[in-house]
Amino acid sequence: MRILIAEDERMLADTIAEGLRAEALAVDVAYDGDAALERLGVNDYDVLVLDRDLPVVHGDDVCRAVAEAGGQVRVLMLTAAATVHARVDGLRLGADDYLVKPFAFEELVARVHALGRRARPADPPLLERAGLRLDPARREVYRDGRYVHLARKEFGLLAELLRAGGGVVSAEALLEKVWDEHTDPFTNTVRVTLMKLRRRLGDPPLIETVPGAGYRIP
């Protein structure tokens, strides 16, 4: 999944981002509502973690704009207001879920994952193909019953290839879903990570390169 965090408390925003990246998610950060709208206009996000009291453009206006755009992004609204009226008001603006500060990070992660499942066609509990079995919940991968330890980006890349069900996934699509906006679009990071992933998965090779198109697990 690709996540946008819109939060003006920089320490909190950066802490959330690092925690979600540890979950093998691609995360971008905006510190005001205008920057959030700009990123939403150029990137495809699965989940927006949105502080309600943003500067420049208020969080309510960001939420309203997302709802009116009618895209796939799901909104988790953060606020210090704990009243029922405040929660209902946020949901009426178009938020999909609501979390009151302060919150347990584990709860935020669980809510982000739940919203991410709603933003795209539901994955099966296990992604399986060609002797591979990937468990998204446990973040475990097995090949022919053998456990394979993967780094975060390797895991995310393999998950995207398995979700394609044998279809070809372009390097651009992999970069969009697995890495964040700070990654150079002309970088060879996808190719390098694929090389490491192939090495970890072992022989015979499973990931096929389709010249001029991308990669697939046939």
From TrEMBL:
<keyword id="KW-0597">Phosphoprotein</keyword>
<dbReference type="InterPro" id="IPR001867">
    <property type="entry name" value="OmpR/PhoB-type_DNA-bd"/>
</dbReference>
<feature type="domain" description="OmpR/PhoB-type">
    <location>
        <begin position="124"/>
        <end position="218"/>
    </location>
</feature>
<dbReference type="Pfam" id="PF00072">
    <property type="entry name" value="Response_reg"/>
</dbReference>
<protein>
    <submittedName>
        <fullName>Response regulator transcription factor</fullName>
    </submittedName>
</protein>
<feature type="modified residue" description="4-aspartylphosphate">
    <location>
        <position position="51"/>
    </location>
</feature>
<dbReference type="InterPro" id="IPR011006">
    <property type="entry name" value="CheY-like_superfamily"/>
</dbReference>
<feature type="DNA-binding region" description="OmpR/PhoB-type">
    <location>
        <begin position="124"/>
        <end position="218"/>
    </location>
</feature>
<feature type="domain" description="Response regulatory">
    <location>
        <begin position="2"/>
        <end position="116"/>
    </location>
</feature>
<dbReference type="InterPro" id="IPR001789">
    <property type="entry name" value="Sig_transdc_resp-reg_receiver"/>
</dbReference>
<keyword id="KW-0238">DNA-binding</keyword>
<dbReference type="InterPro" id="IPR039420">
    <property type="entry name" value="WalR-like"/>
</dbReference>
<dbReference type="InterPro" id="IPR036388">
    <property type="entry name" value="WH-like_DNA-bd_sf"/>
</dbReference>
<dbReference type="Pfam" id="PF00486">
    <property type="entry name" value="Trans_reg_C"/>
</dbReference>
